[in-house]
UniProtKB/TrEMBL annotation:
InterPro entries recorded: DUF2189 (IPR018692)
Keywords assigned by UniProt, alphabetized: Membrane, Transmembrane, Transmembrane helix
Cited Pfam families: DUF2189
Keyword Transmembrane helix attributed: yes
Protein name: DUF2189 domain-containing protein
Transmembrane feature ranges: 32-55, 61-85, 110-136, 162-185, 192-213, 219-240
UniProt organism field: Inhella gelatinilytica
Keyword S-adenosyl-L-methionine appears in the UniProt entry: no
């Protein structure tokens, strides 16, 4: 047995059911309301990043569509500081923006390394999406209206279906690898691959609940994007806090040493 698998098996999984999702969202909202400045700071950074994407590629929607969907892949690592806020609050410890920002010091190589892996996955999807539209689109896609007319409402062809299928094929393993692993890496002294294996174990143990949770995250994130990204300022940190509570409910990592 590999060391990563052995360490992962030290972590006990808890039962999961769809009704817990409402609990995660509720607890996440309470965390956001308790530390609104920290949440709004992170949410504003997410929105600013999205606005920068719009500024750079607003006339190249074939690239922008992939960039925004790729953003969903890397968002969990951007929320690490908010996981720390929820962790401290659940333990009655003092916390705030300085604690959240301190997580990105160079002495957190595991988190930074995982962030780089997610960034590579997001970049790979952006390039794949751009190549797909460039090669297979019957006409140039430069604006959202072009995307709707040429891809979404096309009477013939399968470009939209192919794009969504390829996105799902990439997003599913990334989600399964990260949904639990990032909070776990923050919370406990555990190896990167042990954390990833634990995340997969959680998804495979309760595929229905975790699929519904993924759909909830995506739909609420899309709602935030649909408001010209302004909604992400609140929705982004809310979902980050909720994701911590999902981790805390789904696994029992008390057998591992806490990360300070």
């Amino acid at each position: 047995m590999s060391p990563a698998l052995a360490q992962s098996l030290d972590i006990r999984l808890r039962p999961a059911h769809p009704a817990q999702i409402r609990h995660w969202l509720g607890r996440g909202w309470l965390d956001f309301c308790a530390y609104p400045v920290t949440g709004l700071f992170h949410g504003a950074l997410m929105a600013i990043f999205g606005w920068l994407l719009l500024a750079v590629a607003h006339h190249q929607f074939w690239m922008l569509a992939g960039a925004f969907t790729g953003f969903l892949l890397v968002a969990p690592i951007a929320a690490t500081g908010l996981y720390a806020i929820s962790r401290a609050r659940s333990r009655g410890q003092p916390t705030g923006l300085s604690m959240a920002l301190a997580l990105w010091k160079p002495n957190k190589p595991v988190l930074i390394g995982f962030g780089l892996l997610l960034s590579l996955a997001g970049t790979g999807w952006v390039l794949t999406s751009a190549a797909l539209f460039t090669v297979l689109s019957p006409a140039p896609i430069q604006t959202p209206a072009d995307f709707v007319r040429i891809v979404v409402l096309a009477p013939e062809g399968f470009l939209l279906e192919l794009w969504m299928m390829m996105g799902a094929l990439l997003a599913a393993p990334v989600y399964a690898s990260s949904v639990i692993s990032i909070p776990l890496l923050l919370d406990r002294r555990v190896g990167l691959w042990a954390a990833v294996l634990t995340s997969w174990r959680v998804v495979l143990a309760a595929p229905g609940t975790l699929t519904l949770w993924a759909g909830t995250l995506v739909l609420l994130s899309l709602l935030g994007m649909a408001t010209l990204l302004a909604g992400l300022i609140v929705i982004g940190p809310w979902l980050a806090h909720a994701s911590w509570h999902a981790y805390a409910d789904l696994v029992d990592a008390s057998a591992l040493e806490e990360r300070r």
